[in-house]
User: Which sequence fits this backbone?
């Protein structure tokens, strides 16, 4: 097993030494995760830029198509994300015999998810009709989704196999194949969108084909690597084929569905806010989108640390080292708060420079600068909540956090944001800034409730330790 997953002897070393050692482990695990996340974001940026150079219609179609497949993928990504703490727990408990059965049940769920996504995305005509799209834009959107659908099995296959590689502490594996996918996507986009090597120019539809091919090649390469690598040869991915097991799949779904639903709820919230802001005009919408893009980019670092934290906590619980798991869960909040503070200062100090990087329109810049002030506070609450919920996922505690996030986003953040944006009930209507204040309030609520849940749940690790030995047989 990976050396970075070895638990420390409890609790003989000085507290500061153990804390710094655990933070180093998070950095080793989280660094490749960060690069993988940035590579995946780069695919979206490449698609947007290259489709935009084809035509405005192609850009709009790819944007609409992405907004339709992304929430579905995020749900299944979260659902299959349960494999990471499950396999990491088995790794920590040295229950190697349970790793491949869990992986195979995840692969069956990925196959089922692929069928659902393909059926939904190739039959979106009613949704496109409701959007009242211009006929050619609707045609390109459907063509893009039809082409993209061919790569869905490969996309979810890689997501499921990430549970195996990340769960064993080898986060550099998915990093490498995510970068490979991005490197393939760029020339494929050029060939299919603009019509090179004798192929007709496909515009936005070509974007879908490029994504499918890059996903397919990366997934095939990952399978070859897992079957030939000296490290993974011991697991016999193909030879140790396991039949579908309903109990095993239920165990994964019990942990994964709340994660997927939580991610879906968050993604849908930002989509709804964008719709609410549309009547305020294109300048406000543009400023909001820039601020959101900046925050999303900065969020990749704490998100990566959070994913590493999930892996580490689940490993330590499986290894029956609850004191160390408790230490890393709580000390990570200090690391998260420090990271958030640095980001908040950067947003405050360099807001004008950041806005100027995105647009030369002075009106949009003014809106962006104002929103980045609120985004700085939003960032602090967001980083703390993702750290808390990531630690809880390491304990396989996902159901209660799901309800906490649902309440915080839709019970606190959205209503408060709507009132502050459009109403004069509490203060004079704030415009787009009202939603940022509302979101910050919702995230602050989530941070407090999840923090309480973490501090109350983490000491009671006996449940988590016993859970690490249950599940997929």
Assistant:
């Amino acid at each position: 097993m990976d050396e970075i997953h070895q638990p420390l002897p409890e609790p003989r070393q000085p507290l500061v030494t153990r804390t710094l050692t655990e933070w180093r482990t998070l950095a080793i695990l989280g660094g490749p995760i960060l690069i993988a996340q940035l590579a995946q974001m780069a695919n979206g940026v490449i698609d947007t830029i290259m489709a935009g150079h084809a035509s405005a219609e192609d850009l709009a179609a790819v944007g609409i198509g992405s907004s339709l497949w992304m929430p579905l993928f995020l749900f299944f990504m979260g659902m299959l994300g349960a494999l990471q703490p499950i396999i990491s727990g088995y790794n920590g408990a040295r229950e190697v015999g349970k790793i491949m059965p869990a992986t195979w049940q995840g692969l069956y769920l990925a196959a089922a998810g692929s069928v659902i996504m393909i059926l939904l995305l190739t039959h979106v005509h009613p949704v496109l009709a409701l959007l009242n799209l211009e006929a050619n834009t609707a045609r390109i959107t459907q063509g893009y989704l039809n082409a993209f659908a061919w790569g869905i099995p490969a996309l979810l296959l890689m997501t499921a196999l990430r549970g195996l590689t990340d769960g064993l502490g080898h986060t550099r594996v998915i990093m490498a194949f995510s970068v490979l996918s991005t490197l393939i996507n760029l020339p494929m986009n050029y060939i299919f969108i603009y019509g090179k090597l004798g192929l007709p120019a496909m515009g936005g539809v070509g974007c879908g084909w490029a994504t499918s091919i890059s996903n397919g090649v990366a997934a095939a390469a990952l399978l070859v690597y897992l079957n030939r690598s000296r490290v993974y040869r011991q697991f016999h991915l193909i030879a140790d084929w396991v039949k579908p097991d309903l109990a095993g799949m239920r165990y994964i779904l019990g942990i994964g569905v709340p994660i997927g639903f939580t991610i879906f709820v968050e993604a849908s919230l930002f989509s709804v806010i964008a719709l609410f802001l549309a009547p305020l005009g294109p300048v406000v919408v543009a400023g909001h989108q820039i601020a959101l893009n900046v925050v999303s980019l900065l969020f990749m670092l704490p998100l990566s640390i959070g994913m590493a934290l999930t892996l580490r906590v689940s490993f330590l619980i499986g290894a029956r080292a609850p004191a160390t798991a408790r230490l890393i869960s709580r000390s990570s909040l200090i690391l998260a708060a420090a990271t958030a503070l640095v980001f908040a200062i950067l947003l405050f100090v360099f807001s004008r420079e950041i806005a100027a990087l995105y647009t030369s329109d002075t009106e949009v810049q003014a809106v962006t600068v104002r929103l980045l002030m609120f985004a700085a506070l939003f960032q602090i609450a967001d980083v703390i909540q993702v750290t808390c919920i990531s630690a809880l996922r390491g304990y396989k505690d996902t159901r209660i956090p799901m309800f906490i996030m649902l309440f915080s986003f839709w019970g606190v953040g959205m209503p408060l944001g709507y009132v502050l944006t459009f109403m004069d009930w509490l203060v004079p209507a704030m415009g787009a800034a009202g939603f940022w204040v509302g979101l910050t309030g919702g995230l602050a609520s989530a941070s407090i409730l999840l923090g309480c849940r973490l501090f109350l749940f983490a000491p009671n690790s006996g449940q988590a330790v016993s859970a690490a030995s249950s599940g997929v047989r």
